[in-house]
User: Fold this.
Amino acid sequence: MTTRADIEPSTPRDLVARIRAYGSMVAFAHTVFALPFAASAVVLAQRDPNRVPLTLGRVAAMLVCMVAARTSAMAFNRWADRDIDALNPRTRTRHVPTGAVKPGEALALALGSGAAFLLCACTLGFWPAVLSPAVLAILLGYSLAKRFTWGAHAWLGVALALAPGGAWIAAGAAPSAGIVALMIGVVTWLLGFDVLYSLQDERFDREHGLRSIPARFGTTGALVISAAAHVATVAAFVTCAIVLHRGPFFFGGVAICAAILAYEHLLVGKGNLAKIDKAFFDANAWVSVAFFACTLIDGLTRSA
Assistant:
């Protein structure tokens, strides 16, 4: 039976509600994890003699690329994992399993955002245009990785590290060991805290044949691997500082990041899963924000 709601056009309020649902589905607020590192790369690139002028249009294009790429990856993840999410007690209330967002809508958002990323990347120059399809493939491929490798945490780290790497290239800076060190730091940072977050699903992953470090090595092994990854993060950030000849504010930022990561591991503790959500969202958001803030201050004081 056709109802009035079926034939009436959507109201502006309905449209706003859909947009909010899509934004919530892709956890738009979590852009804070990657965006500060991308912005840091732009700041660091300003000392490179090959850089291009940082116009308002270029900055806007970088932001669009960043948001579109992340939206595509998250929407595709929610579409690809819809059946798994429906089985997992922790994720069964997500938008697609509950029907708040239809699977087709999630896939359409992923494809549309991916197309927007590819088109916008073409406005940033030759290399961003050439590399963007491979970048998108890596971002979308992560959603399938857990089905065949427990190295999916590192895959996600690489996906996030492409943000500062892409920003460096879009800024016109030449390849450098410094940006490679920064990207390695981001990879190991993400790997470390994603392993902690995955502790919540250790039993579920093992029972359903999904690959993860906790499912492969257990809680104790996962905690050791996570801690080792974060030690590597600090070492990589220090290497970046040395190679790019950064000043005391940058080193101060690295010290702050190290302290936050240490606090994160103390907060989680051995098997203390109740603290993982707070450690994941709060502590790691502060890592990226603190890093950018200190990088920006360092750049401003050294150029003054």
The chain has one domain: 32-303. The chain is about 75% helix and 0% strand. Residues 1-9 have pLDDT under 50 and may be disordered.
